[in-house]
Design brief:
single chain; transmembrane; mainly alpha; 2 helices; membrane; transmembrane helix
């Protein structure tokens, strides 16, 4: 269990290693979905 923990952490880091463009698009989508109801009213 203890020996497998660093391997799981390393694989999860690889999964969360997105290109910067993908991160920007996701952040813009989250901000748009958050502010759209405010602008709609």
């Amino acid at each position: 269990m203890i020996g497998r923990a660093p391997v799981i952490g390393r694989s999860s880091l690889h999964l969360f290693h997105f290109p910067p463009l993908v991160v920007v698009v996701v952040v813009l989508l989250i901000l748009f979905s958050f502010f759209y109801p405010m602008f709609r009213y």
